[in-house]
């Protein structure tokens, strides 16, 4: 029997066991990572759960949680002469505080936007064009912040002065704590993000059971990974146990990647940060340390951020797991991938985009 058949048999067995589970109360499980949200929608995994169990999307899509005031500031920066914005493609169409503020629109007015696939691409570009002023938009969690930190170190070591990083990086633990402490959000457990766990280790999620008595299963991104993690989490909940388990042991160890954690700490320090639609969360962001100030775009260009404006978009409620995209009055009627009102419809990891694409 080959692996595929093995996997199919195992999946079928796990799905059958999950479907047969009964709970005498409502159970809410949150998947924190945008890649999990997409995989769950793509493979229809909500459909394998008992009816008392709800799977909620969380705030793990980096594009979706980037505050609109930061998009506005990037837009203003992009309009400056000589500045080249180097960014991941998903950021291009994200609207800021109004629909006409986006990098796509900035580009139509002559702004120079370069799509990159990594922080290293941005550094290579800066080396190739020393007369240009490259600003790399650093978004993402502990998975992407180490590479941003490395290019800052490289730029300093090689004395490359025409690149800076706008750090909009975020940290997973504070936002999970924030959600666990909201009186109106009831969570029983988490599918924890496997990518982040490769950096911070399983230990980085211990607080979920230690401080809140909840369950967390670190999991990968294949359908079988998620099915197995759902089975593990529901089995724990059925037994009334709370612990952190590592389903993704082929990539994640307990202590994580020490070198990556160290480079994050060396270049960045924690700061309070605003999450789109959610608000300010203490120590949930990463700012560039004083020692690397010359490579900090916020300092270099004296960037300021305005107050977040409220809009009709319900991304904040979606990201907190309070509503599903279908409950947003704009979903499909006004907001769709061709006319995204909020970032959750733009990003390839956004809950609204996933719901639109795979429903
Ligand atoms: Fe925002 Fe559109 Fe999602 Fe509604 S459907 S929450 S407007 S992105």
What can you see in these coordinates?
The protein is α/β, with parallel strands linked by helices and 359 residues long. Helices cover 39% and strands 17% of the residues. The protein is built from 16 helices and 11 strands. The chain has helices spanning 3-20, 34-42, 62-65, 68-78, 103-108, 119-128, 145-157, 172-180, 194-200, 207-212, 223-239, 258-267, 297-300, 315-319, 343-346, 351-358; strands at residues 27-31, 53-57, 83-87, 112-115, 133-138, 163-167, 189-193, 215-219, 244-246, 268-275, 279-288. A 5-stranded parallel sheet has the order 2-1-7-8-9. A 4-stranded parallel sheet has the order 4-3-5-6, with helices on both faces. The protein has a two-stranded antiparallel sheet with strand order 10-11. The structure holds iron/sulfur cluster. Iron/sulfur cluster is lined by residues 313-315, 318, 325, 328, 330-331, 335, 341-342, 344-345, 352. Belongs to the HypD family. This is Hydrogenase formation protein HypD.
